[in-house]
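> tool_call: predict_assembly(chains=four)
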Amino acid sequence: MFGDYSLGDLGAIFAMQGFAGLILFSVYVLMALGLAIIFGQMGVINMAHGEFMILGAYMTYLCSSFFQAHLPSLFPAYFFLAMLIAFLTSGALGMLVEWGLIRFLYKRPLDTLLATWGLSLILQQAFRSIFGAREVGVELPSWLIGSVQVTDSIEVPINGLFVMAVTTLITVGVALLIYRSRFGQQVRAVMQNRAMAGAVGIDTEKVDRYTFGLGCGIAGVAGSAFTMIGSTGPTSGQLYIVDTFLIVVFGGAASLLGTIASAFSISQTQSTLEFFLSGSMAKVLTLLAVVGILMLRPQGLFTLKVRR
Amino acid sequence: MADDNDQRRDRGLHSPLRRKLLMGLAGAPVLALMPRGALAAAPTSAVNTSGLAVTDSEVTVGILHSVSGTMAISETGAQQAEKLAIEQINAAGGVLGRKIKIIQEDGASDWPTFAEKAKKLLVNDHCAAVFGCWTSASRKAVLPVFEQYNGMLYYPTFYEGLEQSKNVIYTGQEATQQILAGLDWVHKEKGGDTFFFAGSDYIWPRTSNKIARKHVENVLKGKVVGEEYFPLGHTQFNSVINKIKLTKPKVIFTDVVGGSNVAFYKQLKAAGIDLSKQVLMTISVTEDEIDGIGGENIAGAYACMKYFQSIDNENNKGFVTAFKKMWGEKTVIGDVTQAAYLGPFLWKLTVEKAGSFDVDKIAAASSDIEFKGAPEGYVRIDPNHHLWSKTRVGRAKTDGQFEIVYTSPELIKPDPFPKGYQ
Amino acid sequence: MTSPVQALSKSLTVNDNPYMKPMEWLSLALLAALILIVLPLLLDGFRLNLVGKYLTYAFVALGLVICWGYAGILSLGQGVFFGLGGYCMAMYLKLEASSPENTKIQSTPGIPDFMDWNQITSLPWFWKPFNSLPLTLILVVAVPVVFALVISAAMFKRRVGGTYFAIITQAIAAILTILIVGQQGYTGGINGITDLRTLHGWDIRTDSAHNILYFVNAGLLIGCILIAQYVKRSKLGRILVAMRDKEDRVRFSGYSVAGFKVFAFCLAAAFAAIGGAMFTLQVGFMSPSFVGIVPSIEMVIYAAVGGRLSLFGAVWGTLLVNWAKTSFSESFPDLWLFGLGALFIAVVLAFPNGLAGIWREQIEPRLTRRIGSLRAPDPAIAPHSAPAE
Amino acid sequence: MNASLLPNVLMGAEPAKDPAAAPDFLLAVDALTVSFDGFKAVNDVSFYVDPNEIRVIIGPNGAGKTTVLDLICGRTRASAGSIKYKGQELTKLTESAIVQAGVGRKFQTPSIYDDLTVFENLEISFPRGRSVWGALTFKRDAEVRDRIHEIAETIFLKDQLKARAEFLSHGQKQWLEIGMLLIQDPELLMLDEPVAGMSVGERIKTAELLNQIIVGRSVLVIEHDMKFVEDIAHRVTVLHQGKVLSEGSMERVKNDPKVIEVYLGH
């Protein structure tokens, strides 16, 4: 299939294809980070994760409409505020959900799955009632539109760069929070030994609530970043949930590094396959490969051998 | 103002029909000829010999669309148009002197539910006609039900063809009607000789692209340089965009549907593909979809439809005004919405021609029914139960409307089983 | 020292592990009366066909009771097996409906219409077995069971369990849906396999056929309940319960845990497949929308509402949720999703044992007080437990 | 069975055979090593158990005692070394195969099936119908019943047969677990702290019970209670930081200066 193209063309295409894979990678990392915290650290299966993302996306949509209507001069910068609001709203809802639902189910992980599925149905219908069934598009400030000309034939979309930058920032922030801060220490302590953590004076309930809120808040930011690429509709969240869970599980649930590595390998596989096969078959083959590997190596890519 | 328009149009289309009716029902009570008199009607026993839900003053029809689920987004417009049409018909005196009563059911974006509800509308409610369905899958699911229980379905969506039924009137275009004239136009006017096809992965895009490919290769002597399909709901198009850049087609021909559309056009734009220079022709984006995509993301693309909201004629002006009055100033009207609007009127005209609500008689009488009041202009039902209609090409503007750049000079014959394209 | 022991064992031989306890006989009688007598008498043909459709989901819920309630394996991919069973049946029916006479307008007569539309000119090899009815009936169960075996043997051998298994089965449901939709030339794509007409020459679209199929379906369901009951009261049933609570301990009693889990999962797959095949026969088509994630999770909720440990509850739960869905969505389509969501949450938080739990805690004690003179059931033997952790 | 016919093992009788003269050990643990993340929980441990020998493993917390039992019964996989049971390598077998070969294990905390009755608990442990098909077609026949009643009487639970195991007292649960082992009739019995957490009365009954069941098999016991150890042990192996520190009769071990330093001396 390459016979017709010049070497320069091919080089440019592979460069851009690699970049496409990187954007997909950033998107996957954003989606999976929040879940990695909730599922990996807390063992809770949050099937409503996609809906928390969509909540963030709707918040961004509201912000964009508000700035357009009332503060057009500040419109170029609205996206930063929108991401903050998305984080806070999704995080707050997450804490509310933890308090009202999740905390009763820590010992029944399979039941959290059912309960959060129910929650996702309720949220979807709520979005539909509030924002309407149609998908909404968010208008981007002009500086986020267009692409950077790297060479004559290589162009890099700016919003892609922006998503990658946001992803990097959030990932570093989360890693610092979990592995360096006092809060992170408490989170890890509670997850490793709840009773002991409680005994040494950590308020485990509060840690649970903030951890869950943090995971949901990151989902909100992911949703916010998503509006630059895709659409926002009441059921958009459901499209992502399987991919996201597979990424987290494939990475070896408890490890942030694993999540990143898994997002990287899955996105690069899919993006490369997409170039040679149709989109449908690329997706099928990627998912099959992941499931196949998980069947043979259920602990995922990165797990420590621990005493059972 | 809206009412005036409607009434004018209604009057316009009633008068010749009344004459036909007179001839068809010689000796029938004079009352039948008084469309605004509710009491006036042929005896029910004469117009309904097959046990439909028709009384002396009322006739029941069904509306069957998804109100919930993923398809609710798309089906809202069609459902609204059908209700508007029925209201207008009622305001003008109803059908054979009977007011139309609607029973609405929710298909819930679930094909067995469509079949189940279709059966309910026919078996339990004895609906004289059903207006509904949107996706091919829902139509395929209900088709056996309509054939078995002898119902009448008016199906509004442009679709892949390869189907013809006594019990269905297809008010949208089959694939050749929608595509061929547009391809000819883009070939002639834009020098389109190389094409890249990108579509969602299901039957309609695949069949449409198959027909388009045959036309490009055999008739236009051009070349298809790429053909790609994505799962429904797919949102990552960077790879296909790279392939487009690599193959440098003259024309990108797309039939991506639903939420994927938004991601597709946003990413196309972000990747620096400028639709003012690159020709892109779509058969899946109507005014409804632009609402979600955002006009600025798709401005410059060409769409191939039979109807655009911006068509400039009296019928359409009246329709647009009435639609916005009923459903809100911000609503937009796409191709399928208009096709759905035709359904109740075509049924009314057929009933009046047949002088009966009986499905068998309507199925037989449908051939050559003409509707001059259609917003898209004159339409006619072919004996194969599809509509003769024109093909138009519109260019998307940033405000979400289309500027019509081409209208086929003649009505195009519907050809659901096109020779040489299978 | 032996005589008292033997005397005791004699006294226990009488009835210490009956096939069904009186209360279970009563439940079975009630259920059979409902679906075999009451509903057919009360409902018109249309509604009865609808109930028939719901009852096909009850097969799935029944399998989930064994696999999830008893063995603790939550599968979010039961739609896969329901779908495979249904597709196998649909392939046979479609071939019968695609006789060369019926399809003479096609460029290749004698193959299903959707293949013709996709430029396929001869019947693919994997369709060929479905020309034969006996082979089809075998494959309806065999294909899903073998598939279940492949999935589960690999995972249970490696001790993938709980949430991981749930997520992987869910991913498999997603993969299969994309595959069926994407390979429309072979599968009918998103439209599914439609326009099915006859089963070995017998028109399945008539009202009388619907009635007959309803009773066949109900009979099969009761048959499956009896099989499930046999499994439940066998030692295998007790091992499943034991495994759910202390998997390790079962290994140290000398059992290969993986084998038992595979059995439970395959049994559930077989039930789901029978349900799928009956669905195709009664509804007249099969489409990928029953294979995916959403229907698979909904089927779990049927079992949860009925009570995840109750075989009869599975049927009641399925009927109740679907009845609510139909009646709610007819009048308040918006409220329905809120209602369904709330149902999920309520069943988890407030009624983990579902309808069966309410029956056992509220109704059964009163009933047994009334008929206590007949024979007091033994609360100690039944595994009344809260859901597995 | 008659209690009076049992050899009085509580007196600490030496095993009949001299281990050095008999290469046909029942259990031969050789150079066994397991590491978790580089931490060697068990490091090059070797010991040999004769038929009918009662071996007690002692050692301070974290010495690797439970891990050794885990390794033998297949719960943990060895990083290196071998475990031979009657000449058969156990490190490659699954847990269930090891049990079926005749190795029984009692856990530290009572491990029984709370949701089942005492009868059913014992029935599941009955060594027949262990395959899927066997379990489906398993019949609760006279042999099964008699054996269960016999065991139930031995473990003082014959009146609780129909009770759910969840409702037993801690001591009764321990006995039930011992009963579940007993019904399997293993040749090598491994007990992890069998008298921990028991009341004095329960302990006496348990000692009596152990006394009965160790007849005709080899036993590997982990215990902290030195009085108890002295009562039953033929030989003692002392583990410390994953290694064998000392081995021999209780008397000898007690006087080993290394042992005194790390363990007994405190």
